[in-house]
Every structure is written in C-alpha cells, then in structure tokens.
C-alpha cells in the first residue's frame, strides 16, 4: 500500500486532528532500501539522533509517576512551556475520544483502546503530512501539532510496565523481597529508537530551507507543450501527474549540493529500513487472532496448490529461491497473493503440529519435535519461503494476517509501536522518493 505524505508550508492548521473509526491505510511501498547499520546513529549536524528515551535510572526502582492536571506525566523534553487553555481543551478532547473508543454516544460500542490509539496516530500523520508532496520544512503550526499530539499519545507508554523481583530494605535494617516495576522491555527498546528516527526525519525536511531546486505545481499552473515535454524529462512517475515537478538549473545541481542530497537520501533510506524492521518485529510478536485462523482450510495443500506442495514435501533439500524462480512472480500483486497463501498454509501446518503434540506454542513444538514430523517440516519450509519472498519484494504490502493482527490487537503498547513505526516508514519512503525525483531531474538536465 502506497502512502502519501508531506507538507503544505502555508497551512495554518493549529488544532488537533480528528479521530476516525477506520484507520487510513498506510502500507509499505516498493523501494530500493539499503540495510540498516550502526551508521545511522553516527550522523551529526541536521541528521543527528536526539535521544528522548527514559533515563537509565527509570529502569530500576521506577518511582511512582507524578500526575499533572492533564492526568499524565509531564515530558519536559517536548513541552518546555505551559500549554494555553485552548491547547489544554484540545488535549482533553483528544483523550476523551480515546477513552470513549471513538464512540461519542458513550454507549460502549466504540473500538478498544489499542485500536483507538492506533487510529489516532495514523490520522494525525495524515493531518500533518497528508498534503505534503515535496521536500521542504514543515510549517511551524504543523510541526507543533505533530510534536504536541504525538507527545500526548506516547505518554501512555510511560505507564506500561512489567514486574520484576527486587528487594527492599526496611527501616529496621531487614530486607524483604518485593515486586518492582520497570518499563516493558519492547517499549523500552523500541520507543526511544522510533523517537530518534522521527527527529531525524523532521531534521531532514528542515534541511531543505534554501535548496538549489524548486517545484512547479501543475495544480496551480497550466503548462504549454514545452513544459509538458520538460515533465517527461524531469519526472519519474507519469502515473502521478498531479504531483509538483522538481526543477533544477539548466546546468544541473552543483557538485556539493548533489553530494549533500545523496547523503540525505542515504540517511532517509537507512531510517526507512529501521522503521520496517521495527514494524515487522512488532507484527511478528502480535497474537494471531482467532478470526484469521477459523476460516483457514483444513489442509495447507489447498492453500498453496498442488505444484508448490509437491515441491515442498518431496525433496530432501528445500530451496525457496529456486521455487520462486520457477513461479516467475513478476508483480507486487502476485507476490502479495502468494505471501497470503503461503502464510495461511504455514499456520495450518503449525496448528496441526501443535495439536498433535498437545502444545499451544509453536516455538515449543518446533524445539521439541523431531525432524521427521511432516507438519513441522512443512511449516518451517513455508516460513523460509515467505521470508525469501519478502526479501525479493522489500516493499511488499501488509499481508492479510498483518492487517488482521492490527485490527484485532488489544495490546496498547504494541498498537503504539506498530502504528508509530508504520507512519515513520511511510514518511521515510516518501522522502527517499522525492529526493530521487530531484536527482532524476538533475541527471536529465546534465544529460540534456
């Protein structure tokens, strides 16, 4: 699913975004991404990662939160000033809608809290970045809205904790064992990373304050035949003819500017890869909903088809790359359809293996069962085939299972991590795409 994003510099929106019952669809898009490495943490200047995570001291003996009159802990790294009464009212309204599950009648028919927060993050992203189609800094109003409202939504994570055994010393000198709390491990690891990626993406947009290139907006200007010809040379995506066209000087960009642009592209590319990795990890950890498992066929063979099943079940050595070469999958639509079929068959075989050995966890079954169990072998091979397919199509849209997990997930922490990583993935991909458009225009000008 392809996402659109970005900013209208002259926008004067100052209010909070509205919440809808249905999330806007932001799926992955096909892009040329490089592997994420430690280099992303070493950028300085406009791309420096700003740490906004918890202090290390919070991990152990986490003190009881001090509630403000907004009923949430103050995050002083974002709101350094006292909010105005209008802002307080808007924040109260947002949290009221979240508590009501977006059912304003108050009859209890709203969505669960996890879905409401996921929808709120997705809709906020659409409000702030949905009209942005070119490189440039966000307007002050939109940047303030993004930081203020994301801070409110992410503040929920400050109260998602896990228990761990600890000891406490009493006044008389004796020691007793107690259960202390600390931030849940997945949130403690992933949320600060996402906040760093968020800050880096905003910094990349801010770095385009005085670029060498400019845009021609077809929606506001009629083109003659000459400009239509220029579009063919300078725009890579003819299907999206309504998007603004990047323009460069007749001689192209300066060498220094071209290198800086490529550096920013590489940085955004790294961020995109990191967001994809976090999103995939969160989706993998989500519980498979019963509504997905119930309609699955009883046989995995019915899902993948006879030819694929014979190859997976008869050979001693399974080569997923060779199988994909034989299938000759040429489009993202075909790849997504195949991923859905293989994923369904994988869960059918996992369920059979778990039922046969009276184990509810596939991980336990996989470790305990001998290699001769056919269902275990087929499930493992299906997992390898699915992984290989996703590697060949790194921007593959979310599968039916992924969509089902997001829809029926009730874990608030996972909902926040999934939606936050998904919108950052979308923004990073768009920035890479916009930079590629400018580089394409530069190449066309120099070769013309």
Automatic annotation (TrEMBL):
Pfam families reported in the protein's UniProt record: PRONE
Name of the protein described by the UniProt record: PRONE domain-containing protein
Organism: Ananas comosus var. bracteatus (red pineapple)
DNA damage in keyword set: no
The PRONE domain, residue ranges: 78-448
Keyword annotations of the record: Guanine-nucleotide releasing factor
KW Chloroplast (keyword) present: no
Any one GO molecular-function label of the UniProt entry: guanyl-nucleotide exchange factor activity
